[in-house]
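FIELD: query
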Amino acid sequence: MIRWEVHQTNLIAAAGRQRMQVQRAAVLAQEMALTVSVTRRDSLRHELRSVVSSFERIHQDLVHDPESAILRTASAEARRILLQPEAGLEGRTHDFLEAAHELASRPVTAELSPNDEALRRVVQASADVPIVVDALLTRLMAEADGQAARGRRVGLALLVATLLVLGLIGGLLLEPMSRRMQRNTRQLEEANLQLKRLSFLDGLTGIPNRRAFEERFQLEWRRAMRHGSSIAVLMIDIDHFKEYNDHYGHQRGDDCLFQLAQRLRNSISRPGDFVARYGGEEFAIILPDTELEGARAVAENVRRRVAGLRIPHSTSPVREMVTISVGAAAVVPDAASPAPVAAADHALYRAKQLGRNRVEVAGGEGARERRSVGT
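FIELD: result
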């Protein structure tokens, strides 16, 4: 029987950090293709190397080092699954690392095409089934389901056999055996439910993760199509967060991410609104039944409330405290309309290009932009 103990959340958190590094690598690679500045391209290349090195260290602990601190605290089931050879898992990891190392080693003067093969492979890795954390969770949940099913079959056979015996020797064995079977089955089902909950939560901030965001967005998108209502998305990025981490250290960086996550969650008031950590220092908010002006108002409120935390950031060229940039988009969906996530992400990129600590709103193709600048 799988016993999912509290310390195993460390394993999920470590694997989740690795997954976010894959997503961060994809963002850096895409920005390398977009920038024309050699200096900026060189900075992105160095940051990509750092992200890939961090990914490799965690991967070594998760998959190749049975004596690592992470695996020593993991259950026997988790160690067996992570340490057994798996061509698909290792193949995806090797493909991502090969492409990321190739991009990071390109000459700084070499321009990067958006159609570059290595870039495509790095971006694809961020969109595919996650390399480690989901592989672990999927296999643990499959084993839990299988063991629960086997337990039910064995329990049924035991029950039949017990009834036959009881026909001869009385009812002394039926009740305790039945209770034991029910208790074991209940523990398996509870462990399975906990695994599923963990797979939709970000281990650091405690708010929903990107997988939960994508599932919720599909649900709200279909609902908006049925009712002909508008759906809005906000994409949020912490300004100059790498500099914050470099200056204050990763522990302070984690604390900053946690505080911002709680402030974002408390900045929305409607039960249907949904906040998630999208990856790295990026967050996302889904606003059902919300048009463009409403999305802009919520985005500006979120930006002001984060600034109200007044978290010091002495190396920020914006305001010497932690600030955010926000991109917003809204659409009434139909069969041909694009999802607003890409439009909101593009607006976020524009907000960063125009100085950060601001809200940029895109109402769709051809729409006139409206801007809100932080003060």
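FIELD: remark
Residues 1-7, 364-372 have pLDDT under 50 and may be disordered.
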